Amino acid sequence: MGEWGFLSSLLDAVQEHSPMVGRFWLVVMLLFRILVLATVGSDVFEDEQEEFVCNTQQPGCKPVCYDAAFPISHYRFLVFHVVVLSAPAALFVIFAVHQAAKPGRGGAPGQRARRLQPFYVGSVVARIAAELGFLLGQALLYGFSVQPLFVCRRRPCPHRVDCFVSRPTEKTVFIHFYFVVGLISALLSLAELAHLLRKGPPARPGCCHRPQERGPAPGQPAGAAEGPCAPHPRGDLTV
After folding, report:
1. Three-state SS at 175
2. DSSP character for 222?
3. Which of 141, 173, 191, 219 has minimal CB crowding within 10 Å?
């Protein structure tokens, strides 16, 4: 769990720059992906290769048939999925910390947010591309179910060999769950991207935009109608 804790801490640092919908994505990522994969996924797929039984004693036949049935281990594929999804957010955090540590690049919170927002939007786009790519890869590699019987006709098997997969129903349920979580995650990422593009960059601190100028009220000197501009209350990318 140590490596998962390090990854979770990196993702948790992203919420400082995320809007509310981005924080929902972070909750889904931490609870329904990292936590479930670390506690349940390893138990579901730990016997994937050991319990893959074929009705032959031909040397080399079983490994070849296992490779044909599962080109990539389910568990390793899902772990790689989580790592690739977390990479854009982790790189953004590293970049934000590096920018804040530069001499003279601190500035007001609003100025920092304006500089960082294009990079955050880029990390969300990369996350969406990775999410959709892995969902497509899961559908092409494994489909949406694990069959209890796999028929193998590869060399060096002397004839048709029947191979049996352990706990296919449990693995099918887990694959369905993970695919649904992936769809929810992709929708949340698309909603976050739409929100960021619609909102635009944060307003400059101390800059007010009025639709039209008003004249001073009766009895007030000229320029009294334009009160002082209040600074932007938040400097991050949140709503």
Report:
1. helix
2. T
3. 219
pLDDT in tens, 33-84: 888 888 888 888 888 888 899 988 888 899 999 999 888 888 889 999 999 9
Calculate the CA 96 to chain-centre distance: 18
C-alpha span between 74 and 2 (Å, rounded): 21
* Contact between residue 14 and residue 22 where contact means Cβ atoms under 8 Å apart: yes
How far apart, in Å, are the Cα atoms of 23 and each of 103, 137, 142, 154, 188? 30, 26, 30, 48, 9
Whether 125 and 46 have beta carbons less than 8 Å apart is answered as no
Residues 6 or more apart whose Cβ sits within 8 Å of residue 32: 181
**Does the CA dihedral 26-193-183-71 come out positive or negative?**
negative
From the list 41, 130, 27, 22, the residue with the least C-alpha distance to 79 is 41
Q: What is the pTM of this model?
A: 0.72
Residue 64: its H or E element: helix 61-69
